[in-house]
Design goal:
The chain is mostly beta strands. The protein contains no helices and 17 strands.
């Protein structure tokens, strides 16, 4: 057997395969064997061998680690071969997404207060989710058109967070705004939310 090494993002499909060859000089013969991982028996059995027979054991790692796998032939004639192995699990790249975009209020038809600087003010909200620790760069977009580059959000681990942005539309009588708002993520990956409509009519 030879040194085994695996590096990468660990999934349920990953495995370390150990192969060994059993040979007999005066066959056929029934050979008893066992696989031992760091001194602990993880598989055993017997095999009928004419001249040589390949044996295999599959290890499905669940975390980074290293150790020794030994194939032992036991009975009247004893023999063994061993190999070192190492598994290094790389962290999967963080993924960010955005959902639950909404505008408050989403609709208004009636008198609009002058508000600040002649605008009727609304608040857009959304939920950003991440799979691991990361910093998310994103912006708000409007179909009117326009956009706002929001301050980046830093996450210390997987989770979600509500973000919001206050914006204004013209509040003078007769002003009508029919538009849509959405969020675009530019880092650590690209993602785009659904477009959410809102309608403001000032009378």
């Amino acid at each position: 057997m030879r040194w085994a090494r695996m590096v990468g993002a660990l999934t349920s499909d990953h495995r370390v395969t150990f192969d060994g060859v059993v040979r007999v000089t005066d066959g056929p013969a029934t050979v008893r064997y066992r696989w031992r991982l760091d001194g602990r028996t993880v598989d055993d059995g017997s095999v009928r061998v004419r001249r040589s027979e390949r044996l295999r054991h599959v290890l499905r790692p669940t975390a980074s680690g290293s150790g020794t796998m030994t194939l032992e032939i036991w009975g009247p004639n004893r023999d063994a071969d061993r190999v070192r192995y190492r598994v290094t699990c790389a962290s999967a790249a963080p993924v960010a997404g955005v959902e639950s975009v909404r505008v408050e209020p989403a609709g208004h038809n009636g008198p609009c207060p002058e508000g600040e600087n002649g605008y009727y003010w609304l608040t857009a909200r959304a939920t950003i989710k991440v799979s691991a620790a990361t910093t998310v760069a994103y912006r708000w977009n409007w179909s009117t058109p326009g956009h706002f580059d929001a301050p980046a959000e830093t996450f210390s681990g997987p989770g979600e967070r509500e973000v919001s942005h206050r914006f204004g539309v013209t509040a003078t009588p007769g002003a009508v705004t029919n538009a849509r708002v959405w969020v675009e993520i530019s880092s650590p990956n690209t993602a785009r939310s659904a477009e959410v409509p809102y309608s403001i009519t000032c009378t």
